[in-house]
Write a structure and sequence with these properties.
The chain is mostly helical. Helices cover about 70% and strands about 0% of the residues. It is elongated and about 110 Å long.
Length: about 550
């Protein structure tokens, strides 16, 4: 700025003029003529790796002061527009090149390990984001760098696919631009509608393939996840501020982009929790993601009832569940509808857990066939185990039982639970049987299975449960006993099981009275107690034999 002031004064003196006040007017007139060259020189100097970090930070702060001066004198338009007014196309092309150069230099500085360099570059981004014209020019190359199929790779390097470092710095620049825009938005006197034309593109970029690849890449996960969380938070702030200016359909789409991105983030952070020795590093992300969802729930016009200004998170999830689920399924193309990738399954898992049992039950007509039924026979035991763990969590929610219909309950038991209870060798198969029994037990204890439904399904359930009574794992045998106890306690028509099956079932349960596990013996007693409580038990000779067995074992310590 001082250089420009001196040049402006010298040029004015050479023309025979005199100073006007302190020269501020002259600076306002002359600054645009030299500022774009100065700015690019500043950024290019800061981008040289041979320059020490403290010097790079000072250069960036000088660039920021220049940008502030330009913003205050309303000359940013003139600086970034390069070319003759008579050749508009050429001027726009040159301006775009200037914008790419500025964005590229800032991204390189945002990728610096030195905190002072990062903060100075981030501040430059905020200043640029506060100016409407600069923001409109810069948002393009930044968004292009967050897609594989875009021609502009200037911000992420020449290699394909771009590196996670490039993605991370692009997301940091995007966040800084959005933060600057949010801070300046309320101070603007004239209506500015430039950014909202690309807000849907910004939302889509937050969960683009290049971003997701970086999030779920082990070596890059921590850095990229952090920048995605920051960009999502900045994006939702912009949507909250500007929502009243848009059509309801646009607002709805932006909110869906926020939800899709946060579901993938939750999947990535949950994966970190499972694999890492400690999950402390992901907890700040979890808090921020919760805050993002809270802000999204308060956005006006994100569902069909526009009179609701403050909407609860559950209302938001209920409104957007189907659309977000469909978007997650389609993320990998038509084949992904049948076989979801691990990160898609992780995002679907996050969506269902965030929504709760009631919302999942309300939408089981699409969740069941497309998620649980479609993957119940997947070749990957890991996928089946993950989905069964999710189903158990959902089924244990009390609101699930209050909402789920009996046809869906029958589908869950027949298509999802029973196939996974069939014995297979291996530790993961054993774990799958155990979690499947836990899911069935949750359905029983949540009163999700009504009497007529149980009577119809009991002939299918009983033989498989009986086979699990011979399992080597004590927890599996205990859960099987609990489920048998519930069958005896709830079944409307015991003879529907058949005398042969009742005899076999009671015989196997009685054998467990001698099991080495106290928990298994207690569960077996509870199952036999339920059988003896059935009024029609006298029709079965097993009642007398069971009583004899109990009398014998009652003398054991």
């Amino acid at each position: 700025v001082e250089c420009v002031r001196k040049i402006a004064l010298e040029e004015m003196h050479s023309l025979g003029g005199g100073e006007r006040g302190d020269g501020s007017v002259i600076v306002q007139d002359m600054l645009p003529r030299y500022a774009n060259v100065m700015l690019l020189n500043f950024l290019q100097d800061a981008n040289r790796l041979s320059v020490a970090s403290n010097k790079r930070a000072r250069i960036l702060r000088a660039a920021a002061r220049l940008l502030v001066e330009l913003t205050e004198t309303s000359n940013m338009n003139s600086v970034l527009t390069v070319g003759d007014d008579s050749n508009v196309a050429a001027a726009r092309g040159t301006s775009a090149m200037v914008a790419v150069s500025i964005a590229s230099s800032l991204c390189a500085c945002l990728n610096d390990n030195a905190t002072e360099v990062y903060e100075a570059a981030f501040y430059c981004g905020r200043v640029l984001g506060a100016d409407c014209f600069a923001l409109d020019l810069l948002i393009g190359p930044v968004l292009d760098s967050l897609h594989y199929d875009e021609p502009s790779v200037a911000l992420v390097g020449e290699e394909h696919p771009p590196s996670g470092c490039g993605v991370s710095s692009s997301l940091s620049l995007l966040e800084s631009l959005l933060r600057g825009h949010s801070a300046a938005f309320e101070e603007k006197t004239s209506g500015y509608d430039g950014l909202h034309l690309r807000l849907r593109d910004v939302g889509a970029a937050l969960h683009s393939e290049i971003v997701l690849d970086a999030i779920f890449t082990k070596d890059e996960k921590a850095t990229v996840t952090s920048t995605v969380v920051g960009a999502c938070d900045a994006f939702v702030d912009v949507v909250v501020i500007e929502a009243s200016s848009y059509e309801q359909s646009d607002v709805s789409m932006m909110v869906e982009h926020i939800l899709i991105a946060t579901m993938y983030l939750l999947a990535a952070t949950n994966e970190t929790d499972v694999n890492a020795a400690t999950s402390n590093s992901s907890r700040p992300h979890q808090c921020t993601i919760d805050a993002i969802l809270g802000k999204a729930a308060a956005i006006r016009g994100c569902d069909h009832n526009r009179t609701d200004v403050q909407q609860s998170r559950s209302r938001l999830m209920r409104c957007k569940f189907r659309n977000v689920l469909s978007a997650l399924q389609l993320k990998g193309g038509s084949e992904a509808m049948q076989h979801l990738s691990s990160r898609q399954l992780g995002a679907v898992d996050a969506l269902m857990r965030s929504s709760g049992g009631e919302i999942v039950a309300e939408n089981y007509d699409i969740v069941g066939p497309s998620i649980f039924d479609a993957h119940a026979s997947a070749s990957s035991l890991t996928v089946r185990f993950s989905l069964m763990t999710l189903l158990e969590s959902v089924a244990s929610d009390g609101s699930f039982a209050e909402t789920i219909d009996q046809s869906s309950v029958s589908s869950i038991i027949e298509n999802v639970i029973l196939p996974n209870l069939i014995w297979e060798a291996g530790g993961l198969s054993a774990a799958l049987r155990k979690i499947s029994l836990a899911t069935l037990f949750s359905l029983f204890r949540g009163n999700s299975i009504e009497g007529p439904t149980l009577t119809a399904l009991a002939p299918q359930i009983s033989p498989i449960l009986r086979s699990n009574l011979k399992d080597d794992d004590s927890s599996t045998k205990e859960l099987a006993c609990h489920c048998i106890s519930d069958i005896f306690g709830r079944i409307v028509d015991l003879p529907a099981l058949g005398r042969k099956e009742v005899h076999a079932l009671c015989t196997e349960v009685s054998r467990l009275l001698e099991d080495e596990s106290n928990a298994v013996r207690i569960a077996a007693c509870a199952a036999l107690k339920s059988f003896l409580s059935i009024p029609s038990r006298h029709e079965f000779c097993e009642a007398r034999l069971i009583i004899q067995q109990l009398q014998i074992h009652s003398h054991y310590p």
